[in-house]
Amino acid sequence: MDRQMQATAPSATVGVPRVLFVCVQNAGRSQLAAMFLQQIGGRLVQVDSAGSRPAEAVYENVAQVMSERGAEVEGLKPRALTDEKVRSADYVITMGCGDDCPVFEHVHYEDWPVGDPDEADWEALEAIVADIERRVADFWDRIRR
Questions:
Q1: Would you report the helix, strand and coil content of the chain in percent, each value rounded to 5?
Q2: In this prediction, what percent of the chain has a pLDDT beyond 70?
Q3: In CATH, what number does 22-143 get?
Q4: Which one of 27, 59, 123, 128 has the minimum C-beta count within 10 Å?
Q5: pTM over 0.85
Q6: Contact 125, 61 (CB under 8 A)
Q7: Which SS3 state, helix, strand or coil, does residue 21 take?
Q8: Are 63 and 76 a contacting pair, CB within 8 Å?
Q9: What's the DSSP call for residue 98?
Q10: Are 77 and 49 in contact (CB under 8 A)?
Q11: What is the CA radius of gyration of the chain?
Q12: DSSP 7
């Protein structure tokens, strides 16, 4: 993503970093990434997720994985990407929808080429989940320094 190189580092913020994960439907990748970062960052990070074209519901296979990993999935719904969500973030991580994301000068952007878990078989889903988990852990290590 060209914007990753063009974006400036986030301005110093009071408190904790604010991270927004974005995918097309907010039904898979961004939900998983938000869960992983919330689990490892706890109160040291504010996490949100959104979709450029949100689905009606989180993918069943993703909800199952999230539940198995200890996340509360009852009432979990995809949410729409808004300018305000992006504007209030320090970091925006896109996965498959970077061109749909508004650009603001103070926000640091990254685009992660991650597979889509929609209709993935179990083996492919496990690989996608592991990829997202690794990327989130690496990202957290970079931003908390």
A1: 40, 15, 45
A2: 90
A3: 3.40.50.2300
A4: 123
A5: yes
A6: yes
A7: strand
A8: yes
A9: G
A10: no
A11: 14
A12: S
